[in-house]
């Protein structure tokens, strides 16, 4: 599939399909840890993300092993039984229409538009997503004419990718198409999502890292707990980060 992490679409033994990122992807092994942690946090906040899974290629599985197209830096080699990150595809590929772009007339009708873009913006500010916000829209191939549903995907550069820090910028995390923010009329438009994040207990955030493999955290797995501590502290900065974005950008055209 497309993407700098060179993911593959894989059918797993539960019968579902997953977009799989491997430990030796060209970006960094920590991308897998970021994906798992960010998706779990997003679910706690009630945002639409795909179900996640640990994907293992067992030795007795026949067939060719996906081969990466490039090598960057010193990363673990892809072993046959190594754990990879899987993001569940939103339906059977042969019966599900999935796109990453919609014209304005269809984009404005996406039924979870506020959760995807207003909630996603608040979440990306909290986690300092240093990549452009990636979204896919899907519906059944048989449901022609029905509104699409959105999913937040590709959380690998939350926490600034492999750096695990937070280089905040007022213009970061904004989706380039302004119509997705037309429901924003005041600071109150963000409050439901800010409240959910601020209400998270530190223990609930810590549980999101409980079973993340230490090999996904190379070179220092101990930094993962430190990252959680800084995420807890950053909840107090959300209003400031959002206000700075409002002052600098012109994305919120209905926010006077």
Protein described:
The model is unreliable at 69-81 (pLDDT under 50). A hairpin with a 5-residue loop joins β1 and β2 (17-21). This protein has one domain. The strands form two sheets. The protein has a four-stranded antiparallel β-sheet, covered by helices on one side. It is globular. 28% of the residues lie in helices and 14% in strands. It has seven helices and seven strands; from the N terminus they run ββαβββααββαααα. The chain starts with 7 loop residues before the first strand and ends in an 8-residue tail after the last helix. The longest helix is centred in the first third of the chain and has 16 residues, at 30-45. The protein has helices spanning 30-45, 104-107, 113-127, 191-198, 202-207, 223-234, 238-248; strands spanning 8-11, 17-21, 52-56, 83-88, 96-99, 134-140, 149-153. The chain has 256 residues and is of the alpha+beta class.
